[in-house]
Amino acid sequence: MSALPPGITLPKGFRAEGLSSGIKRSLRPDLALWTSDRPAVAAGLFTTNRVKAAPVELSAERLRDAPDQARAVVVVSGVANALTGPVGRQDSLDVMDATARALGIPPSYVLHAATGIIGPRIPVAKVLDALPRAVAGLSTGYEAGHRAAQAILTTDTVTKEAGATAHLADGTRVRVGGMAKGSGMIAPAMGPLHATTLAFLTTDARVSVPGLQQILQQGTDRTFNMVSIDGDTSTNDTLLALANGAAGGPLADDDPAFREAVGSVLEQLARAVARDGEGATKLLTVNVHGAQDIAEARRAARAVASSLLVKTALFGADPNVGRVAAALGYSGAYFDSGDLAVELVDGRKRWPLIQGGVPAPGLENGEGKRLHTVLQRLEEVVLEIGLGQGPARATAWGCDLSYAYVHINAQYHT
Amino acid sequence: MSALPPGITLPKGFRAEGLSSGIKRSLRPDLALWTSDRPAVAAGLFTTNRVKAAPVELSAERLRDAPDQARAVVVVSGVANALTGPVGRQDSLDVMDATARALGIPPSYVLHAATGIIGPRIPVAKVLDALPRAVAGLSTGYEAGHRAAQAILTTDTVTKEAGATAHLADGTRVRVGGMAKGSGMIAPAMGPLHATTLAFLTTDARVSVPGLQQILQQGTDRTFNMVSIDGDTSTNDTLLALANGAAGGPLADDDPAFREAVGSVLEQLARAVARDGEGATKLLTVNVHGAQDIAEARRAARAVASSLLVKTALFGADPNVGRVAAALGYSGAYFDSGDLAVELVDGRKRWPLIQGGVPAPGLENGEGKRLHTVLQRLEEVVLEIGLGQGPARATAWGCDLSYAYVHINAQYHT
Q1: How far from the centroid of its chain's Cα atoms is residue B14's Cα?
Q2: pLDDT band at residue A187 under the 50/70/90 scheme
Q3: Which residues are CB-contacts of B210 (< 8 A; sequence separation ≥ 6)?
Q4: Among residues 343-382 of chain A, which lie with CB inside 8 Å of chain B?
Q5: Which of A16, A374, B70, B187 is in Cβ range 3.0-4.6 Å of A148 for a Cys bridge?
Q6: Cα–Cα distance between A380 and A275 in angstroms, integer?
Q7: With contact defined as beta carbons under 8 Å apart, do B201 and B240 qualify?
């Protein structure tokens, strides 16, 4: 596996387009479309929120009904189409049906997602007007994928795109592409079917339906489900993967190189989502080792990455080790206070923060001031945490909490 | 039961004092002492955080060893004495022993709590120097209780004091007093032994050890455990109750008037803590009815009161009903989207926000603007939420999330 240049999101047989349909008053892109030139195997993970947006329910239904016939994904941004009742469901069905008609494929081959404000309906007429333009613009290559990646954004400041290639055991070269959206209302996993943002993966590998679902779930558990921005779980979280087999070759279900490529794309996207957290100025990477098992390692890492007090301390470049210890303490992970070790990783240098369960020497005085300066400089802050219990490790990603987060989310929305 | 004027925190037989020992560089009060003139029955609730401050461990041990012999509570603010290892434990023992000596009572009769920065040690010499002054100043009445209530504060902007009286079935008049501290690092219950702040209750009623523990637990479950500011659970949460029996009369364990008085004091204090959340400009009260059972009602109410997106919307006076629905959706409480009803209570007027699972008519237009104005005006925002499932109800308290919250918590602390 080797990483490809950013933006290479469309493997063989996939095309995309993104444009403005007028949902967003700003006239920024708000309608994205992906297609596969042949039926693709599809897998999906959706929000566990009890209030599910109509597109979430409809995509989940279609994955159950025709998981090996996916041909298109249509996404709108600006409105979530959640809390819209039966009329909202019909609005999404109208968008999906129109997409199918414009592409000349059966309606059941179309998947759908949405993101934006909860409550308002999709302006269906505008979307229907724009769909023929989207279909006409469908194209391969970097620019088309990038336009689609732009059209799924809301409060994001940058697109999130990633790609990877893998050589299967028999030498077949397959590609994996992905794009994601997410910078607020993002929370850790709440269950086996919980994804945390919008993300779309495409691959030209040949994979079975259960194989793709399992690869997606496993990869998501250690990537998107380890990202936390603000602890709120959306009504619209959707992660879809399409595998169209255009690269040929053997079934890639159990091929380690393929799994690694999918994992790499998911991790690149998850880190990009954390880094672009609403108002964020720093990426926070929390590595936990020495946990009793992987579930505890994840719990501990997520608790630190999600703690508001750690996030605000990070924004202030305050080496407030007590807040890290407190977050570990309420995470539910087992450890003995006296075994706790925390380091700040700064390139090759490691700054001890907690050793043997107490703050590192000098932290309240000169050493603390030096660390303050280091934290001010770092754009990615990496914490290495040892629980001293067992062999399990995990990584979580987050960001700092700034004035801008409050500003973005306190705006009167209408 | 009738409410007493604020500040009446010291029932018969209790004295208090609060002063500056020099722990806080600002020379604000940082040492509080309460005593009972006779051995009191004591009960306590402590943080469930795995990283427990030394005072938490020591008070829990003393409650196990001598639950009917409490004579004094000594509290320091400014340092948490958490993450301090064995030397921290010895520091707290030294403070407790010195308190006992100064009062002429056995060391096992002294309870202890601390709040402040995690990591640094208690400056024991300063505290020991100040203790004789604290003992000399011990007094009954409003001013003494108020000085103690001031000395337990950290980032709080106001003291939290409450009192109530009750007439037992036989006519005996008993009093309940309480004071609390807390405005950050406050989270909902994480277990049966979880308290969420520092709070100290005193009563001159006669109660049994198990009776007092049970009354305290039940009252806390529906008051302090329903307050959320930022979701972080402290290493130092401590709630202590002392009942010295000075009022005489029968055992009050099962007396409804006494339970009501304790509940009233706890609720007054819990609301005061929520209202004084770090940087808060508004108190948020979330009433949930129609839940299947009380656990689900509490889960739903707490999810809304704890949601960062609800809190920031509140700060912006944004009637963002989608965020309320989303929080209910991930709370884990069962309901059907289509049954959901949410109202904003404004004195006698009720503004519909969600009806039958969709936003109330006009909310995206003129009605939304009117609500924006209403929310700007209200200092306490009350949401009335119906889940349409069953008879259970619950109330949670929170506050908005403002720029000031970020400012307070992003300060470099050394």
Answers
A1: 21
A2: low
A3: none
A4: 354, 356-359, 363-365, 368-369, 372
A5: A16
A6: 9
A7: yes
Residue ending a domain, choose from B250, B275, B300: B275
> Looking at residues B156-173, what average pLDDT do you find?
94
Question: Which burial class, exposed, middle or buried, applies to A379 when counting CB atoms under 10 A from its CB (0-12, 13-18, 19+)?
Answer: exposed
Q: B252, B275, B298 — which closes off a domain?
A: B275
CB-facing half-sphere around the CA of B72: CA atoms within 13 A:
26
Higher pLDDT, B332 or A191: B332
- Asked if B341 has any chain A CB less than 8 Å from its own CB, the reply is no
Give the span between the Cα atoms of B211 and B68, in whole angstroms. 12
Q: What is the ipTM of this complex?
A: 0.84
In a mutational test of the A interface, the residue from B234, B330, B407 whose CB has the highest number of chain A CBs within 10 Å is B330
Q: Do A79 and A119 sit in the same domain of this protein? A: yes
- The whole-angstrom distance between residue A258's C-alpha and the CA centroid of its chain comes to 19
The DSSP annotation for B58-72 comes to: HHHHHHHH-TT-EEE
- Give the span between the Cα atoms of B71 and B117, in whole angstroms: 27
In this prediction the pTM is 0.87
Residue A2 burial (C-beta neighbours within 10 Å; 0-12, 13-18, 19+): exposed
CB < 8 Å to B187, chain A: 330
Q: What is the mean pLDDT of residues B75-90?
A: 95
Does any CB of chain B come closer than 8 Å to the CB of residue A325?
A: yes
Domain of B53, CATH number, reads 3.60.70.12
A205-244 pLDDT tens trace: 999 999 999 999 999 999 998 987 566 778 899 999 999 9
For A189, phi and psi rounded to 5 degrees? -55, 140
In angstroms, the CA B27 to CA B25 distance is 5
Nearest-CA distance B150 → chain A (Å): 24
The torsion angles phi and psi of A93, rounded to 5 degrees, stand at -60, -40
> Distance between CA A122 and CA A82 in Å, rounded?
10
Residue B230 confidence (pLDDT):
62
B113 and B43 in a common domain = yes
Chain B: residue nearest A308 by CA? Answer: B230
Q: What is the mean pLDDT of residues A34-44?
A: 97
Q: Do A50 and B329 touch (CB under 8 A)?
A: yes
Which element (helix H / strand E) includes B29?
none
In this structure, the answer to whether residues B216 and B365 fall within a common structural domain is no
Does A66 share its domain with A172?
Answer: yes
The rounded distance, in Å, linking the Cα atoms of B387 and A337 is: 42
Closest-CA residue in chain B for A230? Answer: B308
Report the gap between the CA of B67 and the closest CA in chain A (Å).
27
What one-letter code names the amino acid at B305?
Answer: A
The answer to whether B55 touches B92, Cβ cutoff 8 Å, is: yes
How far from B213 is each of B36, B44, B218, B239, B250, CA to CA, in Å?
Answer: 18, 7, 9, 11, 18
Question: Helices A124-137 and A85-103, interaxial angle, to 10°?
Answer: 30
Answer yes or no: do B346 and B268 share one domain. no
Domain residue limits at B305: 283-410
Contact B323 A49 (CB under 8 A): no
- By C-alpha distance, the chain B residue nearest A187 is B330
pLDDT tens digits, residue range A320-365? 898 999 999 989 999 999 999 999 999 899 999 999 999 998 887 7
A258 and A289 fall within a common domain: no
Query: Across the interface, do A119 and B359 touch by the CB < 8 Å criterion?
Result: yes
Number of structural domains found in chain B: 2
How far apart CA A98 and CA A131 sit, in angstroms, is 8
Which residue of B lies nearest to A86 if distances are taken between CA atoms? B338
Claim to verify: residue A108 and residue A239 sit in the same structural domain: yes
Closest CA of chain A from B324, distance in Å: 10
At A385, list the tokens: 């945490």
Query: Do A35 and A55 reside in the same domain of the chain?
Result: yes
The CATH number that applies at residue A292 is 3.10.20.340
